[in-house]
Design brief:
The protein has 423 residues and is α/β, with parallel strands linked by helices. It has three domains: 2-114, Glutaredoxin (3-Layer(aba) Sandwich); 119-232 and 357-422, FAD/NAD(P)-binding domain, CATH 3.50.50; 249-353, FAD/NAD(P)-binding domain, CATH 3.50.50.60. The chain is 27% helix and 29% strand. The chain contains eleven helices and 25 strands. The strands form six sheets. Strands 7, 8, 11, 12, 13, 14 and 25 form a seven-stranded mixed sheet that branches. Strands 1, 2, 3, 4, 5 and 6 form a six-stranded mixed sheet that branches. Strand 12 and strand 13 form a beta hairpin. The longest helix has 20 residues, at 403-422. The radius of gyration is 24 Å and the shape is globular.
């Protein structure tokens, strides 16, 4: 891809016809993830669209003028005018192709995509999921000189990367920001030599054949597979939840708390995530009402003490939400008192839901043995019922799910695989 500076913007972009412009930064994992995808797409679409990049920090005036606030940020322009929305963060190859339709004829795009020759990549171990368990397994394997490929539909870090602060990770006296802890884990594993294929579309997985298809054209063939796909937030399953997700309802305090400065919000849940994140939200919101179905919190005692001593936090124990609605700019929560069965209405600015997690198993067929809660059963080496397929981290059947237990799982699986492959 051709790199330009602000002084060349007029000639190369404003007068350049159809252009995809990537504002990138150094020491930026999402930028590193998108770069090879853009280079590959340039080979396919380069005759129709100019692919260019510009160093954001070195061209701040232009970045500010164009309101580019993060890296990477992809702009799709024709004669200097943006023709569609921007892409930023962990951008997938399919998302770029989708937006190119604003610069090219859809039929031409499809014809070019249909001409792409499938490729096959061989590796010793493929790890599906780049949370703490997957990253730890990758670290141990690459240090054992075993060729390892780490694959994730998002960026590395898993749920840790969206956790405000982690206070119980060994080796740190002070609480660590979740994004920083996960970033350091990822950089350590990458530096060791693990191959990263992140922010990709995983389109097919065959656990028996040990084959994983990503972005519809690349098949990764492995000797062993480690499943480390983690969990996703549970949905409550009441009216309005899906309709207002991302538009008044959030499942990530780190992502969205900053938008509720001096506003009132509701937090649903009573476990560690709900109570710890409520404390974080209180840095922004003026009032927080925690709705919990039981008469006691399930969070750890330290988190409970902080919440009870926080003047911004109030509690509604033995209550459950029954519906979410919207009235103008306000969110409305219908809440039932489980003792009296009386339903009251709370009118607030936003809703945060922290009601547990579910295993991410949509990529797999029904061949895996699962426990009664839908988590993957493993033996003491973290191996599943399918030979050569392992499961680590929160996706596995276990009593406790913590960063440290995920790391332990990844360690065990990697050592077991190392001994097998060495033999």
């Amino acid at each position: 891809m051709k790199e330009i500076t602000a002084s060349e913007f007029e000639a190369e972009v404003v007068k350049g016809g159809k252009v995809l412009l990537d504002f990138y930064s150094t020491e930026c994992p999402p930028c590193e993830a998108i770069a090879p995808k853009l280079e590959g797409l340039e080979k396919l679409f380069g005759e129709e669209v100019k692919f260019m990049k510009i160093f954001r920090q070195g061209n701040r005036d232009l970045s500010d003028k164009l309101a580019v606030k993060g890296s990477p940020t992809l702009l799709f322009l024709e004669d200097g005018k943006e023709v569609c929305g921007r892409l930023s963060g962990g951008v997938k190859r399919s998302e770029v192709v989708r937006e190119l339709r604003h610069l090219m004829d859809k039929k031409d795009i499809q014809t070019i995509m249909d001409s792409v020759e499938p490729t096959v990549t061989h590796t010793d171990v493929a790890i599906l999921g780049a949370g703490p368990g997957g990253l730890t397994a990758g670290l141990y394997l690459c240090q054992a000189k075993i060729d390892t490929t780490l694959i994730d539909i998002a960026l590395p870090g898993g749920n840790v990367s969206t956790t405000h602060m982690v206070s119980n990770y060994p080796g740190f006296i002070d609480p660590q920001p979740g994004y920083l802890l996960s970033h350091n884990m990822s950089e350590q594993t990458k530096k060791c030599g693990t191959t990263y294929k992140v922010a990709v579309d995983v389109t097919q997985v065959d656990l028996d054949k040990k084959e994983i298809v990503i972005d519809e054209f690349e098949t990764i063939k492995a000797k062993k597979i480690i499943i480390a796909t983690g969990t996703s937030p549970n949905r409550i399953g009441i009216p309005g939840e899906l309709e207002y997700k991302g538009n008044g309802i959030s499942y990530c305090a780190t992502c969205d708390a900053k938008y509720f400065h001096d506003k009132e919000v509701v937090v649903i849940g009573g476990g560690n995530s709900a109570i710890e994140e409520a404390d974080f939200i209180s840095k922004f919101a003026s009032k927080i009402t925690i709705i919990h179905q039981f008469d006691k919190l399930q969070a750890n005692k330290v988190a409970q003490e902080k919440a009870f001593n926080n003047p911004k936090i109030e509690f509604k124990f033995e209550h459950e939400p029954r519906a979410f609605k919207k009235e103008g700019d306000k969110m409305v929560v219908e809440v039932e008192d489980l003792k009296t069965k009386k339903v009251e209405t709370l009118k607030i600015d936003g809703i945060f839901v922290f009601t547990g997690q579910k295993p991410n198993l949509d990529l797999f067929d029904n061949a895996l043995d699962l426990d009664q809660w839908g988590y993957i059963k493993t033996n003491e080496d973290m191996e599943t019922n399918i030979e050569g397929v392992y499961a680590v981290g929160d996706v596995g059947s276990k009593k406790y799910r913590q960063i440290t237990t995920a790391i332990a799982d990844g360690t065990i699986a990697a050592i077991a695989i190392t001994k097998e492959i060495d033999n």
